[in-house]
Amino acid sequence: MNLTSQQIEAFEKQGYLFFPNCFAEEEVALLRSEAEKIFRTNRQEVWREKTGAPRTAFAAHTYNEAFRLMAHHPRLVEPLQQLFGEGVYVHQFKIN
Fold this sequence. Notes:
Blueprint: H1 5-14, H2 25-39, E1 46-48, E2 54-58, H3 65-71, H4 74-84, E3 94-95
Antiparallel strand pairs: 1-2, 2-3
């Protein structure tokens, strides 16, 4: 996926780009299902409210295959590499 000159210009002006259809509905549904599974686990990366309700899951890309694949997906990585002109890595990853 290559960004257009208009998208690059928009990023330079606004500091972000929005791709509402970057992932298909089926892909989003799978990620939602995987997030629900993660929130049902008892992992130190899953932070909970005082009530026990899950609040945030950190670093899911390190222990869940679906989120690992998403974090490395060319539809995300290639535009970033195009914008920054170098390799990129995940600095922080969380599911709220």
